[in-house]
Amino acid sequence: MDDDLHALSGAYVVDALPYADWVLFEEHLRGCARCGTEVRRLRETAALLAEAVAVTPPPGLRPRLLAAATGRRPTPLGGGLASLAAARPWAGRAQGRAQGRGWVARVLAGGAAGCAAVAVGLGAVAVDARRDSAALTAENRRLAGANQRLADANREAADTSRRLADANREAADVNRQVAVLLAAPDVRTVRRPVASGGTATLVVSRSAARLLFTSSGLPALPESRAYELWLMGPDGPRPAGLLGRAGDGVTAPVVVTPLRGDERVALTLEPARGSPRPTTDPILLADLPAA
Question: Which portions of the sequence form the region Disordered (predicted)?
């Protein structure tokens, strides 16, 4: 069976195999180095034979064509073929051999033309294969870009989910502390005006060690500034947190733990990220209820 497949290389090169034999030979070609070499050489030969299609016309063709165009028969050289044949009896045999050689040349020319057609076909197949490969490469690049964008979107979504989860945990913690504060027996509420505008509300319980601060009506600040809350005791002011941006004029509640010696709450304008010490005069200064 392998010997039969070896003999199919020529038909395979000119694409003359039936489909079933073509499939068998394709499978055989993957593991047969000899057939692979033969196929490459046959394809190179087909390309070279394509150059042999051009044939030089015989010397007498031009006068015969001119005579046919002017309506005159050409004058035979040396008194015509008959006298030439009589004077040289071997001329007939030479003419026969020349005709035979002409027939062979025409056959070779036809074969060369066929090989040239095959070579052109193989070249077209190669061009199509390169075009398909380039299209596949471009599609792979497009898919890789889409996958990268999807991965980036997934990372952004994961980051957003983490931030949302952190905010939910903080809100739940604030809610628990507010519940503890409001349930305390000594809870007190104090409201004070803010010098720059608005009102501050303090809910304090010394027994629960909780202080809730919120405000309403505070003027909006540029992105570079923020409201910062301070607890003030014998050792001076210490930071108690930044007020969140007011969405509807009411800032989010800030719950802090006052120390036993803390006596006042202050509010100042500070850089957007806060400050370890006050840098401006307080716009609010409120006394904390005593224990």
Answer: 271-291
Q: Tell me the whole-structure pTM to 2 decimals.
A: 0.46
Q: Provide the domain limits for residue 253.
A: 188-287
User: Which DSSP letter does residue 54 get?
Assistant: -
Residues 6+ apart with CB under 8 A from 184: 205, 207, 208, 210
Q: Which long-range contacts (CB under 8 A, 24 or more apart) does 99-106 make?
A: 105/55
Taking only the tens place, the pLDDT of each residue in 158-196 is 988 888 888 788 778 878 888 888 888 999 999 999 999
Q: What is the CATH number of the domain that holds 215?
A: 2.60.40
63 in any annotated domain: no
E strand or H helix at 45? helix 33-49
In Å, how far are 60, 63, 69, 75, 115 from 57, measured between CA atoms? 8, 12, 18, 19, 22
Domain total of the chain:
1
Query: Considering Cα of 152, then 156, then 158, then 159, what sign does the dihedral take?
Result: positive
pLDDT for 79: 45
In a domain, 239, yes or no: yes
Measured between its terminal Cα atoms, the distance across the chain in Å is: 106
Whether residue 40 contacts residue 13, with contact meaning beta carbons closer than 8 Å, is answered with no
**d(C-alpha 13, C-alpha 114), whole Å:** 12
The burial of 279, by beta-carbon neighbours within 10 Å (0-12 exposed, 13-18 middle, 19 or more buried), is given as exposed
Q: Would residue 267 count as lying in a domain?
A: yes
Q: What is the 3-state secondary structure (H, E, C) of 191-212?
A: EEECCCCCEEEEEEECCCCEEE
Positive or negative: CA dihedral 258, 260, 264, 269: negative
Asked whether residue 275 is assigned to any structural domain, the reply reads yes
